[in-house]
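Write out this protein's structure.
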Amino acid sequence: MAMSEQQKKELAERQVRLKEDALLFQGLFDKGDGKAVLKILSVMCNENEPTFVDQNPTGTAYKEGQRSIIIGIRKQMNKTFNQPKQEKAKVKEIR
């Protein structure tokens, strides 16, 4: 089934927003204090620790929810784009 012009427009706008979001994460966590905060979040969100809580499925779900935050941040940080630095600066101005 072919996409309508409206659907194509919405998809293009969503892709732009996702790209801008990733660039914001990268600008925030790529250097200086942002790197330090990312390390703190890694520990707080149990990034490298088991999330299983014996005989407590709610506790496991809670810890897994925390961990999903840092994983989401890492995914944003790992996205790559062919984009000049001037456009990255433009994204900062937008937000």
